[in-house]
Amino acid sequence: MTAATALAGLAWRAANTPGHRRFRAALAAPAAAQAAILRRYLRGAAETAFGRAHGFARMRGIEDFQAGVPLRGYDDYRDWIDRVAAGEPRVLTRSPVRALELSSGSTAAAKRIPYTAALQRELRRAVAPWVHDLYRRWPRLAQGAAYWSITPLAMAEEAAPWARRAPWNHRDPRPTPPAGSPATAGAIRIGFEEDSDYLGGVLKWLVDATLAVPGELRWVREVESFRYLTLLFLLRREDLALISVWHPSFLAQLLAALPRHWNSLVDDVRRGGCRPPVPLAAALAARLAARLPPRPRRAAALAGLDPEERARIWPRLQLISCWGDAHAALHAEGLRCLFPGVEVQRKGLLATEAFVTVPYAGRTPLAIRSHFFEFLPHSATAAPGDAGGSARLAHQLQPGETYSVVVTTGGGLYRYRLEDRVEVDGFAGRTPSLRFLGKEDHVVDLCGEKLSEGFVAAAFRRAFANAGIVPRFALLAPDPRPAPAYTAYLELTAEPPPGLCAALERELAANPHFHHALRLGQLTLRLYRIEAPAFPLYLRRCAERGQRLGDVKPLALSPLADWSDLFPGRYAAPPPPHGSSETGQADGLALERPLR
What we know:
about 600 residues; alpha/beta; GMP Synthetase, Chain A, domain 3; 4-stranded parallel β-sheet; 19 helices; 17 strands
């Protein structure tokens, strides 16, 4: 631990204390907090192009807003965002757009989300109670280094075909991006390079002062060298206390590179400097080398360890923060196996567009001070053209019920459907605590069964728990050859246990249409054992479809077929015929007509 790191950590906690107090007060009065946020939006955006088109100046409250602004998805905002990207001011917000952050969604190519100073303040209002609560529960976090994930800039460029390197208009009052950063034709910066950029201001500086891995690594364009250098910086920090990543598989893949580079990494710690697998540009290599003086004593300590001894490599690691709901729960469990004794905390629901829930006091309450939220009851989510009559407000949610999230933000998205399904799992004060269940827009339908992402993720968890296995990767996808079927692609260290296919089939058959399609012979279920690391191949296919690699979320369900052409491996033994005693479906029932 260095004195500078400890001081920055304590200052980081102190800086978030006022925000924590305001958040705690708002938890007791969610209706008032939300009404105040909406009034601020209506006043601030009244003279924007969007505000004039929708009559913001005439609106007096929530009912006017819901009646005057229809629910929207990203495609409905595409033309407005194109105007922002072209450099037109005051399109969606009065304040300038600082960046268009990339979001790949579930399966589609990247979307561009406007980021303004107001939106960054809203994110800080959610981060404050989270950080304060972390340091209250784990005080030693403030005394150690932290790793906050970084996305290589090359990945953002690959996903942004409209991005170009352009001279900046220095007469423009907008903040000037770093020279060489990707930008739109209107000189709007494309994307943030690292987590701390979302915060901006002094909080970004405080976070950066505690980082074990510098932001310069975003310029490393070769993925294996990026992993090598990340591990090198992490190995140098025996005081590493906190790891914050998005999807847990990001960290798992990073650690998978540790054994194959172990000797070289330890040698680099001893000698100083860095020798990654693919050499760096001279200027970048010099900048990084200046941060990497020789550390022979640390190298000697590492040389006596095995790369699998993570608890001894980082003895002060206390917390890993990552996604932990829906299908990410499977991967989070894998991290618990890699780091026994280290707390793995689920981040809650954080999208590129908005901070929805905050990990706080053992729950994930709504980020009540950050944005204006509405919720569509699950039964109403499919109704097109909803003018707001079925939308619920935060203080109207009921425990145990499921909803689809609608958000209005300071970045200029109004009544924007995130298409994330959540369940109310309790309350913090009078504010609902929400658990992410899955994407609303991620459904696969071969013959009327309409399997959803959240349902498949839950089926996987139950089947795997009952079988006593933790696959490194699991994906259900349509597999039409030779007949309509689904295949569960599993990366396992051993053969699938007997009965796993039948057990998974029973879990999926909780969907009545899937159940009937199985019995009619319209569908079958197969297992495919992947015999190589699956996640890098999954990433490659997502990148080929235009997704930004740093944002790819491994999902339980894919609408794409032919994964067997990508994953090396083989099909396991087929399941027993439908109607057999093992599947428990020989009850003599039949349907007179197909389900379609």
